[in-house]
Design a protein that fits this description.
By secondary structure, the chain is mainly β. It is 13% helix and 36% strand. Among the domains are: 134 residues, no CATH class; 115 residues, Sandwich (Immunoglobulin-like), CATH 2.60.40. The structure holds [4Cu:2S] cluster, dinuclear copper ion and calcium ion.
């Protein structure tokens, strides 16, 4: 099977062609073998010619795409000492963290540890961070692994409010909230009875504000179906497995309700009016092996009627699963048979879709085909009409289903009627015209749907536009987060970095204007105007109940075998020059940084005790450990802070 787009008439350098062909075929072979080919062949049966037509169309339409346009590089270069115009927030994937980049430069400016342990900051080491991550009765961290996929900011009236980022942990079914003033995680919650928690999206409507009695929700999809509860029952009886869709309260970070769903969920999108949330489903078959998961010709995009679900919960129409106290309502096909009372609606879409995104005007959802070369456009208004009983067939809410290329995954909008979708197998970004797609669906053969394509390097996963998931899209940039980079950077061993390519989408043609290597492996990101983010540089001493407010307050207190060391840091000294404990004591060190100067962070490490953390200006952090090794231990500052940074030390004397 040929899946490369060279036939479409698009030129590329011979070297390029070979590499792209290799990648395309290796991707097919590597990902799903013959079955994927079958899947694509099946799609082609219905519309193979149309694909060629669309591609051919793009080829002619984009005939200038390969004639290198004159690029004004100064527009994208951020000169030394200059600041970027956007923040990029990315998930870290299986590194378990969150990354912050400046864009367009692509400079990494912060890593926020979330589900991982980080010895730069002491995340997972300090008592404060361990409390947020959660510990077991034996004192060990609940989990030291995480897999972050989706990052989304809190909204007020459809626009980012700069307050919080929500990010998922796919491995351990957790949601984390990161406060953006300090760029630190302040809460982590585990979802009950969920495995493979993948898609996450907050409500876009309500502000998260005490004064207006916030109702902000965070919606969470679950990808893996399991026995419920998953306590050893029904182990090999997959017919009894099912998935739950969870709604979390953004303020308390506690689950409010869950919905029992047929099939699985992958990515999540929310409407701008607060009425609907939805998720693409690739395993409506409830298959347990991949070939089972792609056996049906169609899967679905499932919509959740938020107000109805909350009314059902209020009316007591729920059940519980296992020990969980979270109310669960029934959103299965059977329970949702009558549209007028349905909590959910399953809209059939071509097989194994991936990614669902809503247009900035709130009118259309685009669900990418993955195994089908299509994107399905679903009308928000028609979905609401289905719930009102005004239309019968959920497929009648579909207003377009253009063929756009092979392996469509994720979509961004420019707010001016154009849509940009990543094509994993084609290694391209395709630009298509939403209005033309709808005309074509109505039968207009002249409608020119695909208007441009650009090669990316290589195999893009997520793609998103600047401010494109808000009511204020600016149509400036698209970022293609590519899964493979091969020859784009100096080789660094078996695993290449991922690559993030910046594409200027402000003109008719897409132009790649930046290549940024990324430590594996970001999945989703958002690109946010810099004026939205307001950070603080100095903490308030009074925020910390344990604060040691002056150097003269430094002391050692003993209660039985428990010893508390009250310590301050102020360049270039710690408040105690030495202190003595006994072997076997449980020692808690409370350290307050009394410095008030921006960027004057001190570190604190104890050799051979696994203690390493930082305290920012006016911040207090603490650690607890057993002093099990007698001897002299130089506690030293790890963060270069002063000309006498190396001299900034204190001694812990552990008596035998
Ligand atoms: S998923 Cu990874 S590329 Cu987690 Cu949003 Cu599509
Ligand atoms: Cu304090 Cu280095
Ligand atoms: Ca399927």
């Amino acid at each position: 099977m040929t899946i490369s787009k060279e036939e479409s008439g698009k030129t590329s350098t011979p070297q390029d062609t070979g590499r792209r062909r290799f990648l395309a075929s290796s991707a097919v072979a590597g990902l799903a073998g013959a079955s994927l080919s079958l899947g694509l062949a099946a799609c082609n049966k219905g519309g193979g010619e149309a694909t060629t037509a669309a591609t051919g169309n793009a080829g002619s339409g984009a005939s200038g795409a390969n004639a290198t346009p004159a690029i004004d590089w100064d527009k994208y270069e951020v000169h030394p000492g200059k600041l970027d115009t956007y923040y990029g927030f990315s998930s870290g994937g299986h590194s378990g963290d969150l990354r912050v980049h400046g864009l367009p430069s692509g400079r990494e400016i912060r890593r926020v540890p979330v589900f991982n342990v980080d010895c730069m900051s002491g995340w997972g080491i300090t008592n404060e961070s361990r409390k947020i991550i959660g510990t077991r009765p034996n004192g060990q961290l609940n989990y030291i692994t995480g897999d972050t996929h989706h990052v989304h900011m809190s909204y007020t009236d459809g626009v980012y409010d700069g307050r919080y980022i929500f990010v998922n942990d796919k491995i351990n079914a957790r949601v984390a909230r990161v406060r953006l003033d300090t760029m630190e995680c302040d809460a982590i919650t585990q979802l009950p009875n969920v495995q493979g928690f993948h898609g996450i999206f907050p409500d876009k409507r309500d502000p998260l504000d005490d004064k207006i009695n916030s109702t902000t929700r965070v919606f969470c999809g679950a990808e893996f179906h399991t026995p419920q509860p998953n306590d050893g029952r029904d182990l090999n009886d997959p017919k009894k497995y099912f998935c739950l869709f969870t709604c979390l309260d953004a303020k308390t970070m506690q689950p409010r309700w869950q919905v029992k769903v047929d099939g699985n969920m992958d990515l999540v999108a929310t409407s701008y009016d607060g009425k609907l949330a939805c998720s693409n489903q690739y395993n409506t078959e409830n298959g347990v092996h991949y070939e089972d998961m792609m056996s049906a010709e169609r899967d679905a995009c499932v919509f959740f009627n938020v107000a109805r679900i909350e009314a059902a919960v209020k009316a007591g129409k729920f059940f519980h699963i296992g020990n969980s106290t979270v109310p669960v309502v029934d959103g299965t096909h059977e329970a949702s048979a009558d549209p007028k009372t349905a909590l959910t609606c399953y809209v059939p879409v071509p097989k194994n879709p991936h990614g669902v995104n809503i247009s900035p005007d709130g009118k259309y959802y685009a669900c990418a085909g993955k195994l089908s070369p299509t994107a399905t456009v679903i009308s928000h208004e028609l979905m609401l009409k289905w719930f009102d009983g005004e239309i019968k067939d959920p497929r009648d809410a579909v207003v377009a289903e253009p063929e756009i290329g092979l392996g469509p995954l994720h979509t961004g909008f420019n707010g001016k009627g154009f849509v940009y979708t990543t094509l994993f197998l084609d290694s391209q970004i395709v630009k298509w015209d939403l209005a033309a797609a709808m005309k074509s669906y109505q039968g207009d053969k002249d409608a020119k749907v695909v208007v441009d394509r650009v090669d990316v390097h290589y195999q893009p996963g997520h793609g998103f536009t600047s401010m494109g998931e808000t009511r204020e899209p600016d149509g400036q940039f698209f970022i293609s987060d590519n899964k493979f980079s091969k020859d784009r950077y100096l080789p660094v061993g078996p695993l290449h970095p991922d690559s993030s390519q910046l594409i200027d989408i402000s003109g008719e043609k897409m132009v790649i204007v930046g290549d940024h290597p990324l430590y594996p492996e970001p999945h989703d990101s958002i690109m946010v105007r810099r004026d939205i983010i307001k950070t603080r540089q100095i903490y308030d001493l009074n925020e910390f109940p344990l604060a040691v407010k002056a150097m003269k307050d430094c002391r050692v207190e003993r209660q039985g075998r428990k010893v508390t060391v009250y310590l301050t840091s102020q360049a270039p000294v710690f408040g105690l020059r030495e202190w003595t404990v006994k072997k076997g004591d449980e020692v808690t060190i409370i350290l307050t940084n009394l410095d008030k100067v921006e960027d004057l962070t001190h570190g604190f490490a104890i050799p051979f005790y696994n203690i390493n953390f930082v305290v920012h200006p006016q911040q207090t952090q603490s650690v607890t450990f057993i002093a099990d090794k007698p001897g002299v231990y130089w506690c030293y500052c790890t963060n270069f802070c002063h000309a006498l940074h190396l001299e900034m030390r204190s001694r812990m004397l552990v008596q035998a």
